[in-house]
């Protein structure tokens, strides 16, 4: 698609800031969506494993890696220092880049929310600012550190959320439930939009017709972060209860603070011969191949104030490939998937998880039916449409567009 010209005849320029490595999958999808519509896109991020600080050009995106690296499992004080270090460096880098690049818009991806203030110089000189809330920080903190929402620290995080939302010209989040929460906490409804983490066919490839008739063990998959709230240890326990009756193979793909705990638990249960830990980051197309090869996908989250509102990206990816899935019952999953597309289990209940998995192991027809039903989600929730809405929103926030809209209102 031909690029749209800016007020000076150049392509519009958009900068993204994220305290994570590149490519962060949500940042990558949004960046590629803007590139396809003629934008120039810069990303300011941490250096990440395998990359030192510096500037590179990757898939059309200019990536500026800063000398900060995320440390999984860090305590609260260490994490705050990490956030502040990246924030200061990002603020300086964005200001420097803006002097030469003159961004039309800057998009900050949380966590932390206050990273949006790294766009202070572009905002003061006319650029639009978008805050992209991947997670709601008060709920995330309450879940991770097992604090009530009434605790002082969580209330402080709510204050910084409100200030960050007020600073931004527009706010994005990932689900209708979280949009509603932000509005209830004071965000103007017309300034909050949802961009879901839907799979991008351009990255994952077109899903092929599935066949569940194959020789060998039934392949069960969990992919994503290894954290206590996400219940991966419960999945190991459930597989341990099932292995004597079924031929199984479980793949745990990802990284996280519980990796060593999970390895030890697998050994204790005598599961090392049927469990594979896949901890190397895969390119998106290879990740898609891994997901497509699974017979059953599992989302075994525990339930708390954070996980109840999550629409698991992994579940949307299982839906894209038509993988029959077991998921913990939650408000967000029920809202988007309904009661019939997923085999539900009760959060935190190993026996309920075992029963849900067994209902698919013992009934091939039910497994095939759930594969068809879950795929219907992807027929009504398509990244192509989400990307078009996202790009149109960013376009509407460009200074020239906003000024024209204001003139029309007058």
What are the main properties of this structure?
single chain, Rossmann fold, 14 strands, 410 residues
Describe this structure in words.
It is built from 16 helices and 14 strands. The two termini are 33 Å apart. It has 2 domains: 13-198 and 384-409, Rossmann fold, CATH 3.40.50.2000; 202-380, Rossmann fold (3-Layer(aba) Sandwich). The chain has 410 residues and is an alpha/beta fold. The strands form 2 sheets. Strands 3-4-2-1-5-6-7-8 form an 8-stranded mixed β-sheet, sandwiched between helices. Strands 11-10-9-12-13-14 form a 6-stranded parallel β-sheet, sandwiched between helices. The protein is 44% helix and 18% strand.
- Figure out the total of helices: 16
CATH homologous superfamily classification of the largest domain: Glycogen Phosphorylase B
CATH architecture classification of the largest domain: 3-Layer(aba) Sandwich
Helix content: 40-55%
Q: Summarize model confidence as the mean pLDDT.
A: 91
What is the radius of gyration? 22 Å
Largest sheet descriptor: 8 strands, mixed
Question: In a few lines, what is going on in this structure?
Answer:
The chain has helices at 25-35, 76-101, 120-124, 137-144, 152-167, 176-184, 201-204, 232-242, 259-268, 284-292, 313-321, 331-337, 350-361, 364-380, 383-397, 399-409, and strands spanning 13-18, 40-46, 54-58, 61-66, 105-109, 128-133, 170-173, 192-194, 218-225, 248-255, 275-278, 296-299, 325-328, 343-345. With 410 residues, the chain is of the alpha/beta class.
């Amino acid at each position: 698609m031909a690029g749209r010209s800016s007020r000076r005849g150049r392509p519009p320029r958009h900068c993204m800031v994220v305290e994570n490595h590149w490519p962060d999958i949500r940042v990558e999808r949004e960046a590629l969506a803007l590139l396809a519509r003629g934008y120039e896109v810069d990303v300011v991020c941490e250096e990440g494993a395998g990359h030192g600080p510096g500037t590179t050009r990757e898939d059309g995106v200019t990536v500026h890696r800063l000398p900060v690296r995320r440390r999984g499992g860090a305590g609260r004080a260490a994490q705050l220092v990490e956030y502040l270090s990246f924030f200061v460096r990002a603020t300086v880098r964005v200001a420097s880049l803006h002097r030469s690049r003159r961004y039309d818009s800057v998009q900050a991806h949380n966590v932390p929310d206050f990273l949006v203030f790294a766009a202070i110089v572009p905002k003061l000189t006319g650029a639009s600012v978008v805050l992209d809330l991947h997670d709601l920080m008060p709920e995330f903190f309450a879940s991770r550190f097992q604090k009530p929402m009434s605790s002082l620290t969580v209330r402080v995080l709510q204050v910084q959320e409100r200030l960050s939302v007020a600073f931004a010209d527009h706010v994005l989040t990932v689900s209708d439930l979280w949009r509603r929460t932000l509005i209830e906490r004071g965000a103007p409804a017309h300034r909050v939009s949802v961009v879901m983490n839907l799979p991008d066919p351009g990255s994952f490839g077109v899903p092929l017709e599935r066949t569940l008739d194959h020789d060998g063990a039934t392949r069960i998959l969990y992919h994503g972060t290894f954290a206590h709230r996400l219940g991966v240890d419960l999945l190991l326990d459930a597989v341990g209860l099932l292995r004597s009756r079924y031929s199984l193979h479980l793949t745990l793909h990802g990284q996280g603070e519980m990796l060593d705990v999970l390895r030890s638990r697998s050994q204790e249960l005598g599961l090392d011969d049927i469990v594979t830990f896949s901890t190397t980051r895969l390119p998106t197309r290879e990740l898609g191949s891994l997901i497509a090869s699974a017979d059953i996908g599992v989302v075994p989250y525990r339930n708390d104030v954070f996980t109840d509102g999550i629409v698991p990206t992994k579940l949307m990816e299982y839906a894209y490939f038509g993988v029959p899935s077991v998921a913990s019952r939650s408000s967000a999953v029920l809202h988007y998937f309904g009661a019939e597309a997923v085999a539900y289990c009760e959060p935190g209940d190993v026996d309920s998880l075992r029963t849900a998995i067994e209902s698919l192991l013992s009934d091939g027809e039910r497994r095939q039916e759930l594969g068809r039903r879950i795929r219907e989600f992807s027929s009504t929730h398509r990244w192509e449409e989400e990307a078009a809405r996202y790009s149109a929103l960013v376009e509407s926030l460009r200074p020239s567009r906003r000024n024209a809209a204001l003139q029309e209102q007058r």
